[in-house]
Amino acid sequence: MSAAQKPAWMPSRKALLVAALAFVAGLLLFLALWLDQRDNNRFYRSLEAPRSVAGQVFEPLPVPLPAGEETASGMGTIEEPVGGAEAPIRRPAPPSAPVAAPTAPAPA
User: Fold this and answer.
1) Which of 1, 9, 11, 46 fits a disulfide with 15 by CB distance 3.0 to 4.6 angstroms?
2) How far apart are CA 21 and CA 29, in angstroms?
């Protein structure tokens, strides 16, 4: 492709050169800062001494509640119908008669 046939969205050579130089300059600045901040002789150390295990005091856990018939959430209870009447028993509907398969039409 010649310069006359170059698409409009493609940047010029000068713009590509400026972008490449900016990228290289940013990369060099990053490397300079990274090397300056890197210190192999220093490792993270806390300013205060760690607490010993003997200094830690924990409260004991509470005693579990005795097992009962009622659950803690109340989800396992069954409600009794009011008035002593028995709840109606729902029975499933009887199955309907099977549908006959359609027969093929007689040839003409």
Assistant:
1) 11
2) 12
The secondary structure of residue 84, as a DSSP letter, is: G
Rounded to 5°, angle at Cα 94 from 91 and 101: 155
Sequence-distant (≥ 6) Cβ neighbours of residue 86 within 8 angstroms = none
What confidence tens digit (pLDDT) does each residue in 12-43 have? 999 999 999 999 999 999 999 988 877 666 66
Please report, for the chain, how many H helices and E strands are present, in that order: 1, 0
Say which DSSP state 61 is in: P
Q: Which residue, among 25, 29, 28, has the nearest Cα to 17 in the 3D structure?
A: 25
What are the structure tokens assigned to 105, written together?
């039409």
